[in-house]
Amino acid sequence: MKSARRRWLQRRRRNALASLALAALPTLAWAAPPAKPAGHAPPPPAHAPPPLVALPMLPSIPRVRVELLEKKLVVVEEINLPRGEWKAEALDFYVAFGAPGPPRAIDAQLVSVGDGALEPEDADPGETLAIDRAPRRPPSAHPLLGRDTMAGVVVHVKREALGRALTAGNMAALRIRTALDLPEEDAAGGRGVVVRLGASRGTPLTLGRVSLVAKPGGPSPSRAEARLCGPDADPIPLAITIAPKPPPPAAPPTTPPIAPVLAVRHASDDLCIRFWTL
To answer: What one-character DSSP code corresponds to residue 2?
Structure first.
């Protein structure tokens, strides 16, 4: 009896130890996985660029001038940049190309606007700015002229340059000059060019005055017309000055033009200028 009981107790003890060992196996396997072979560490996750902060100023376009040369024309567009809430940071602006066709050349200058003046002096050459061509607006550049999906240039405005330009009257002007081939005449004998306008903070940039100027050796304009163009554009013609001044038309226009500053502007509007030469 005692031998049988002793053997039964030994078997029970062995079974209990085996159960404990089996129960511990999953825990040990989870706690100590097999070592992985050495290799290169995975690259850190890419970080998204910081969001573009709101432009610290509300730009406007005091004037657009088209200069006629012998075989080309130059569109000069000036954008006023008041000091606003500028905190001495560098700014990048995106300027889309106009039409027709890509420009032969394009450059940008930063010009001071005198105290109390509404636009910079024509004779002031300003400070040349660096530009980079781009197929569309990059996330780091503030939209200024044209749409984000249009090809154009990024204009880099350094903080030191903007600080110098703002010294005279707390306002600077970004002068964009674009050289284009002289457009072909259409069926009515006119030539056309599209100048990009734009918006900032959701507000269309105010447009000041528009002019057409014949340079020495270039064709003399006989008449010209300017309108806002775009899906929502107001069809009322805009006033445009011509130099040298042509003879008055034989009949007055059916719809008198208005000053560009009085026109109803939309963010999608461009400026279409059409002219005829002698």
So the answer is: H
